[in-house]
Sequence to fold (426 residues):
Amino acid sequence: MSGDFQAPKGVSEYFPPRSGIFEKVVRKLEQVSLAANYHLIELPIFEDTELFTRGVGESTDVVSKEMYTFEDRGGRSLTLRPEGTAGVIRSIIEHGLDRGQLPVKLYYRGPFFRAERPQAGRYRQFYQFGIEAVGLDDPFLDAEVIAIAYRGFSSLGLKNFELQITSLGDDESRSKHRVEFLKFLANLDLDGETLDRVKKNPLRIFDDKRAEIQAKIKEAPVLLDFLTPDSAMKFEALKRALTELGIPFVVNSRMVRGLDYYTGTAFEFVHRDLGAQASIGGGGRYDGLMKTLGGQDLSGIGFGLGIDRIILALESEGLVNSSNENAKSDDGYLDLFIIPIGDGAKLRAISLIEMVRKTGFVADMGFGDRSLKGAMKAADKLNARHVLVLGDAELQSGQGRLKRMADGNEVSITLDSLVASLKNAI
Ligand code: HAM
Fold:
């Protein structure tokens, strides 16, 4: 039965047992961020459309082709957030978070929306975990941000990925490069549409998937060769810091980030098993963004990691078991499953289970009217470590038998001291 409705095309959804992996990924990334003194910011899913057109840039695919924009009942143009950075900076300015200690260190997670053509690893609603460190321009802060993503991936067990870094320099570096780059492009025979894109942002041509274009730009001048001494020094400091931290990286001078606000450091984490949608995370520094949005002229740096793609990467590296047929997930287990026989037993079970849960154990009980055999099967499927059957005899005597499912071993216990017995058993 497929029912009358299906989720909209291209959205990603998570339900047990796979949602357990989702939770684990978010929790790990939260842990590494909290350990570095980043704190949660929870933001609206929709914002003024102009926040993104101005913040992310009109030359980008994200803004020009992929936004979910709608008018609300008051005739205001709103957009489902396609990314997180613009909203974070909006909130920092609006609430004056940049008037205290700098850098402001924040993390966020949640759904983001881009009307892209759906395919494996590319969704219209997807999930990101992101951090932003706003207010200081210091290459060692860039290193910290990259290190948090790296530690996050490593602590999840991921191995088959590569960190790529580059520098997009400052205004001066970019305008020097732009002159030479446009001279180079002028000698190529490019079609009208490509020329239009190049005018808005010349670097976007590196993103062109067509082999003939890639062949034409093989010898194109790269920005890294035009860095001002200040930008070059910062890039060197970043590389030194990453080396000091034992974080391997490669320099990719042709990296093009999909959003226009980047300056200076830019980076991407590319997973080798994921084919066309290989970027499991990316980010960089943005010097002008806050000023563009009407705030102080402060720089910031951050990343967005794609949770959906991280899960695909974990699966491809064989690090999780997310088969839907198997109800026993890696993490889903119960410390105790109580099987009550009859209503009197259910009444006792429901309060016993409450007590057990209060002490931090994970516990559940049999609901409905299942046979003892059926309930035992359920306990097994739920990965219960211990089972307690509650029938008339147990209610009367106040005694029961706690069964350890791993080996079938049983111990006699007093119902009133169930929690203590469980603690002993585990
Ligand atoms: P982004 O590179 O556009 O950066 O997205 C970050 C990550 O989100 C990507 O590397 C990818 O893993 C995931 N992602 C993006 N689009 C999709 C999609 N359609 N389906 C599945 N996953 C996707 C940003 O969004 C910046 N705000 C990151 C940042 C923060 N830069 C500075 N601070």
The pocket of histidyl-adenosine monophosphate is lined by residues 83-85, 114, 116, 121-123, 126, 128, 130, 132, 258-259, 279-284, 302-304, 306, 308-309 (CB under 6 Å).
